[in-house]
Specification:
28% of the residues lie in helices and 33% in strands. The radius of gyration is 16 Å and the shape is globular. Strand 1 and strand 2 form a beta hairpin. The protein has 189 residues and is an alpha+beta fold. The longest helix is centred in the middle third of the chain and has 15 residues. It contains 7 helices and 8 strands, in the order αββααααβββαβαββ. The chain has an 8-stranded mixed beta sheet with strand order 1-2-3-4-5-6-8-7, with helices on both faces.
């Protein structure tokens, strides 16, 4: 991680796409995060988002991002529509520096589903991970009952790597996961 120390010492960089701005979360984003995460369709497709989303949880979520970045553990971006400035999701990388890899995770507001935002933001974050942070591998996982997320992973150029039975626990129940990954040497869309 020594070669990455300069990246993590600086603030989380802002990334841009044609339609989106990916920037660090700020305290003022808490209300939009809370409102978006009230929809159970987001919570049930993620590992850690509770439903109902508790009061104060968005503030705690946002407060931990800066130190997670400077500690080299995670990068979490707010996904913002360039036109209008609405916060429409989150996109992040959880790092495993010993193995030069990261796990991609994300959620997009239900009102913005079907617009390609997860693919657009994910492609930009993957480019940052490979080209700037020099990661070797970026992986992602989804529940079998959420095939839309699997289609996002395919659009990002990820390869299907497997189906893992009862590999995670969600709300006291074992859940299956489908795994995808892309290597720095793989072609990117």
């Amino acid at each position: 991680m020594d070669s990455l120390a300069a990246h993590f010492a600086a603030p989380l960089p802002t990334l841009e796409t044609e339609r989106l701005l990916l920037r660090a979360f700020v305290a003022g984003d808490a209300a939009a995060v809370h409102d978006n995460l009230q929809d159970d369709r987001i919570a049930r497709n993620t590992l850690t988002i509770p439903h109902p989303y508790p009061a104060g949880a968005a503030e705690v979520f946002i407060a931990g991002h800066a130190s997670a970045w400077t500690d080299g553990k995670r990068a979490t971006w707010a996904v913002i529509e360039r036109e209008g400035g609405a916060l429409v999701g989150a996109m992040g990388l959880a790092f495993n520096h010993a193995h030069h890899r990261a796990e991609l995770g994300y959620w997009i507001a239900v009102s913005r589903w079907g617009r390609g935002y997860a693919s657009e933001a994910g492609a930009r974050v993957i480019r940052f991970g490979f080209d700037v942070l020099q990661l070797h591998r970026i992986e992602a996982h989804h529940y079998p009952e959420n095939p839309s997320s699997g289609r996002v992973m395919q659009k990002l150029g990820m390869t299907h790597e497997g189906f893992h039975r009862a590999v995670v626990w969600r709300n006291g129940t074992p859940k299956d996961n489908v795994s995808y990954a892309i290597l720095r040497s793989d072609p990117r869309p």
